[in-house]
Amino acid sequence: MVVRRPHSCLRRLNTLPCSRRFSLSYSAVRLPSIAPKSNIDVKHIRENPDLYAQSATLRRYNNAEENPLKIIRLFDEWKKVQGKGRSLRKRSKEIRTKIFIANNSYGHKAVGEAVEPASGQLLLNEARSLSHDVKDIEKDEAALTQQIQSLAFDLPNLTSPETPVSGEPQVVGFINELAPKPVSSDERDHVHLGKVCDLIDFTSAATTTGWGWYYLKNEGALLEQALVQYALTVARHHAFQVVSPPSLVYSHVGSACGYKPRDEGNVQQIYAISQDEGDKESLKPGLSLAGTAEIPFAAMKANTEFHPADLPLRIVGPSRCYRAEAGARGAESKGLYRVHEFTKVEMFGWTMKDDSAKLFHEMLAIQHKILTSLGLPCRILEMPASDLGASAYRKRDIEAYFPSRRGKNEGWGEVTSTSMCTDYQTRRLSTTVRFTDGSLRYPATANGTAMAVPRVLAALLENGWDEKDKIIRIPKCLWPWMGKESIKMKPQGSLKEL
After folding, report:
1. For the whole model, what pTM was predicted?
2. How far apart are CA 286 and CA 275, in angstroms?
3. 3-class secondary structure per residue, 62-108
4. pLDDT tens for each residue of 208-250
5. Of 172, 203, 294, 454, which cross-links 336 as Cys (Cβ 3.0–4.6 Å)?
6. What is the pLDDT of residues 309-360, one digit of tens each?
C-alpha cells in the first residue's frame, strides 16, 4: 500500500498532456495540498447520458437531471477550443522556426538581431500575439474542464438492476420472524420505560442542548456500551479491523463521499463548524461534524495506492454521529428514534469491483447475526432508487419492530443500512489499486451499520418489557457486559437527578 504525497500529485497534474488533464478536477475553492484530486469517468457519462439522467431522476436529484447533456455540450465546446488552440500552437511554432532560421542564416544567436527590421518585427509581434492567444485558450480550456467536472461531481451514482424503481421498498426476508410482536401501550413506550427505570433523561438534555438530544443513565448508559462491544465482537470475528475515527472532517471530504450540506429540498443535512473572519479571508477549508463514520473511514485511504493483495480491507469502529435533519417533533420521531447525536458502530470496506457484492453480503450477514442474537423481530428491505443517497449503487435496510410505532408503518423502523458504492467514492478520493503491469484501477467501497445504538436500545426496551414482572429483559448476548439479566423499575420516590 502506498500513500501518494501531495507534491508529487501536483507535479503530475502540471506535466500531463491536455487530453489527460481533462479528466482531473479543477476547483474554484482553495483546498489544502493534501486534498484528493478526483478523477470522474466523464467519458462514460458522455457515452451513457440517458443512464445517468435516469439515475438522477429516480433519486429525485432534480437539479442534476440535465447535467449529462450539459456535459456533452460543454465537451463539444471544449473540443472546438482545443482545436483552435492546436492551430494557434502550430502557427506559433512556424513563426518561431522562421525566426530561428533567419537568425542562424546571419550567424547570430540572439533572436531578432539579424532579421531584416520590417519582416523581423512583424514576426516578433505575431509571435507575442500568438503567445497571448494561446494563454487565453488554455484559460478557456481550464474553465470548461472545471464546469464539466463540477457537473459530473454533482451526479449521483448509477443504480443497480436489483434496485426497485417503483418508489416502494421490497421485503426480501425476515429475522426472528416467529418472535412475538407485543401490542402497543403507554407502558411499553421506550420514553415511558426510560423514565420509570431511570435510563433516559430527555428533560435535562432539552435544557442543556435542545430537542433531539438526551442523556443515557445507569443501565441505559451501560446498555449503550454493551451494544457497541457486542457489535465489535461480531465484526471482528468476520475479519474486520477496529478503527476509531475522528468526528470532524473537511467539508470537501464529505462532499466527495456523496454527502452535501443541504438536500434537494434545501434542508440542512450536516453541522458545519463556523469560521472566524481570518479563516474566511485566507480561504481555509471548512470543517463539518461527520454524520456517519463512513466519511472519515472512506477518507482514511484518500491519496492511497493499494496493491491487489491488500484487498479486501474491512474496518469497523464506533463513533458519535451528528445529524442536523432530525426532523420535526411528532409521534414518528419522538424519543430516541430520531435524534441529532448518537453512537453508531459502522462497517466499511474496499474491494475490487468484481468482489463488491461479496463484501456487501458479508456486512448483511453480520447485521443478521447481531439482530438475531438480540431477539428483535425484523424485516429486510431492498430499497428503491428514491431512497438511495448519491454514492449508493444498491442499498438494503433492516427494520426492527417497535410496539410504540405501531400506528406508523405497522411498527417497523430502520435500524441498519448497507450500501454498495462501486468506485463512486474512490474516484473522488483518489484511492487506487496498482497492478504489476503498472495499470491503475479504482476499488469499490461498501458500508453498513453494525449498530445504531439509540434505535436498537429503544427497540430492546419496548420488546423486552415484561408487563407481568415489571422488568425489562436483557438479551443473553449482552449479559457479559451488563452483569445482569434484567432491568427493574425504580421506586417512584427513589428517582433522583444525578
Report:
1. 0.86
2. 7
3. HHHCCHHHHHHHHHHHHHHHHHHHHHHHHHHHHHHHHHHHHHHHCCC
4. 999 899 999 999 999 999 999 999 999 999 999 999 999 999 9
5. 454
6. 999 999 999 999 999 875 545 556 789 999 999 999 999 999 999 999 999 9
Q: What are the grid coordinates assigned to 178, written together?
A: 416467529
- Apex 305 CA angle, 303 and 308, nearest 5: 150
Q: Are 294 and 447 in contact (CB under 8 A)?
A: yes
Sign for the CA dihedral angle at 182, 186, 187, 192 comes to positive
Instruction: Please give the distance of CA 234 from its chain centroid, rounded to a whole number.
Output: 24
Contact 351, 358 (CB under 8 A): yes
CA–CA separation, 398 and 414 (whole Å): 6
